[in-house]
Amino acid sequence: MIVLLKKTNIDFIRKRFIFFAISGVMIAAGAVSMAVKGVNLGLDFTGGTLLQLRFDKPVATGDIRAALAKAGIETTLQSLDRNAYQVKVKGSQEKVNEVSDKILGAFTANLPGNAFTEEKRDYVGPVVGRDLAKKAVFAFILSFFGIIIYVAFRFSNPVWGAAGVLALMHDVFVAAGALSITNRELDLVIVAALLTIAGYSINDTIVIFDRMRENMRMFPRMPLGQLANTSINETLSRTLITNLTVLTVVAILFVFGGEVINNFAFTMLVGSICGTYSTIAIATPLVYQWDNKGK
């Protein structure tokens, strides 16, 4: 096995209140942004105008985006072929014609010499309605309870399950807060990214919990604080190697992947960093803190 770090002896448990404070600041920043600015919901949640156009000459996606950006139009763009594009803009059904005319004007002004034909003009309803959103929230809650039950059964302690769930909720909320702060759209692709972050976070946490359980069997009299630090340090190299691999791929997608997947890559980048942090600095220290709450 590749070893990134030699044997370390970092006292993570002693620094737990610093970690809790850092997390508190990140969560508070996200919460304030959501309260003040709200969440920038994408077309999947709001619905909007769909305009399909075919150009006489092939036109690059970047030129289409640039023409719309000059007119101040934020869109979801889909290329059908080298000449045809679908342009989707958030908005109400009553503004379909107004928005469509604005898009046509942007292309006329910013893409001279390339005539186009309007093939379709329509209103697209939200893919995610209120009922589906409520079911999604209910599914999230059920999955959290399922994780608590699974971890409680596996490690014979429900506190460990609750700590793991709090850590993954921390990661998901920080990622969502980052989206709000940077005013990035939340659509179904981003929901998939948040779910991926949750799975990634709990998987990493269970690795450390497994090592803690093994050390408990080998050293039954070792204090919990020392045991937690030993377990984190023993798995630190593995954690960093795994997470640096993920971060490298996600960072490449974020920098070179283009605008289409930029929001997804950004969410995964924030979530991956938080997942690494929360495994070491939140989940395990929470187990220790609960066990020593009256001491």
Could you say which structural class the secondary elements and strand pairing correspond to? alpha+beta
The low-pLDDT segments are none
Percent helix: 55-70%
Read across the widest sheet, the strand sequence of neighbours is 2-3-1-4
Number of strands: 4
CATH-defined fold name of the largest domain: Multidrug efflux transporter AcrB transmembrane fold
- Sketch the major β-sheet: 4 strands, antiparallel
Radius of gyration: 24 Å
CATH superfamily of the largest domain: Multidrug efflux transporter AcrB transmembrane domain
> What is the rounded distance between the termini?
40 Å
> So how many helices?
9
> What CATH first level of the largest domain would be assigned?
Mainly Alpha
Task: Report mean pLDDT, rounded to a whole number.
Answer: 85
Quote the beta fraction: 5-15%
Net shape: elongated
Listing every helix as H and every strand as E from the N terminus to the C terminus, the arrangement reads HHEHEEHEHHHHH
> What's the domain count?
2
CATH arch. level architecture of the largest domain: Up-down Bundle
Task: Please provide a written account of the structure.
This protein is of the alpha+beta class and 295 residues long. It has 2 domains: 16-41 and 129-291, Multidrug efflux transporter AcrB transmembrane domain (Multidrug efflux transporter AcrB transmembrane fold, Up-down Bundle), CATH 1.20.1640; 48-124, Alpha-Beta Plaits, CATH 3.30.70.1130. It is built from 9 helices and 4 strands, in the order ααβαββαβααααα. The chain has a 4-stranded antiparallel β-sheet, covered by helices on one side. The model has no long low-confidence stretch (mean pLDDT 85).
